[in-house]
Design brief:
- With about 260 residues, the protein is mainly alpha-helical.
- Helices cover about 55% and strands about 0% of the residues.
- It starts with a helix and ends in a 20-residue tail after the last helix.
């Protein structure tokens, strides 16, 4: 009886999580050649990063140095074909957050070696969204207002994913500049670094951010200093040599 329960319980958990995933993304997710957007993104992620499924240790695998270029090309072509229609689903992925119930059920399933299915967590959806925005770039500019709205979300993982997505959109995300500036003073260094990089990737359109960025050339954290220098280079901001910390140097793009 106990063995049967151990088999049935994970299956029940999978069914519950499957229902959660269905209600979260399935109805409005665009389809190309019979496969949903998330399917194309998942396959692409598996080629370049780590398979976005499975146990926690998979998140620490090194990047795949030998992706199947034919698969990659097909995935990119499919996502680009879907184009701006992917924006609502990608924004939904950025906004994904695991409920306590889903976290508990996911942890239970991951302990079951005989269960082949492993649910997509919020972290996986964030990764997939960021890859989608990376592929679409400025073609996803319609997502900017929604992503700016997510910068005000209390979940820092959602904020990080939103900033990463805005970074990929590039100069077309110029409207995000005012909402990014407060992150320069954030206590979370990851968010601080991401915001600096994102401002830099706006290019010359982020000239208004230059006076705010300049003091960070002398930040106590060397990574912040380097990212600031690179951001200012991308913005093409004139910098006085005396304002640059001695361990940064003046070479453009130096990291």
């Amino acid at each position: 009886m106990r063995t049967k329960f151990r088999i049935v319980l994970p299956i029940l958990c999978v069914a519950i999580l499957g229902g959660i995933a269905w209600s979260a993304l399935r109805p409005g997710e665009p389809v190309y050649q019979g496969r949903r957007l998330s399917g194309w993104l998942e396959e692409y992620a598996a080629q370049y990063l780590i398979p976005p499924v499975g146990h926690l240790d998979q998140y620490f695998r090194p990047p795949n140095l030998h992706p199947d270029e034919r698969v990659v090309a097909a995935d990119v072509a499919a996502i680009r074909y879907i184009g701006s229609e992917a924006v609502p689903s990608l924004v939904g992925m950025v906004e994904a957050k695991d409920s306590p119930l889903k976290q508990s059920l996911t942890a239970l399933i991951q302990k079951q070696p005989l269960v082949p299915f492993h649910p997509r967590t919020a972290a996986i959806y964030h990764q997939m969204a960021e890859l989608g925005f990376m592929i679409l770039g400025p073609d996803a500019k319609a997502a900017v207002p929604a992503l700016v709205g997510l910068l005000h979300n209390r979940d820092q993982e959602i904020q990080k994913s939103a900033i990463a997505s805005l970074y990929s959109i590039g100069p077309a995300a110029q409207a995000a500049q005012p909402a990014l500036l407060p992150f320069l003073n954030h206590t979370n260094l990851d968010l601080q670094e991401a915001a600096i990089a994102c401002l830099g990737n706006l290019g010359p359109a982020a000239q208004d951010a230059v006076p705010v960025l300049l003091p960070y050339l002398n930040h106590t954290n060397v990574v912040i200093r380097h990212k600031t220098k690179r951001a200012l280079d991308n913005i093409q901001a004139p910098i006085e040599l005396g304002s640059i910390s001695s361990d940064i140097g003046v070479a453009s793009g130096q990291s």
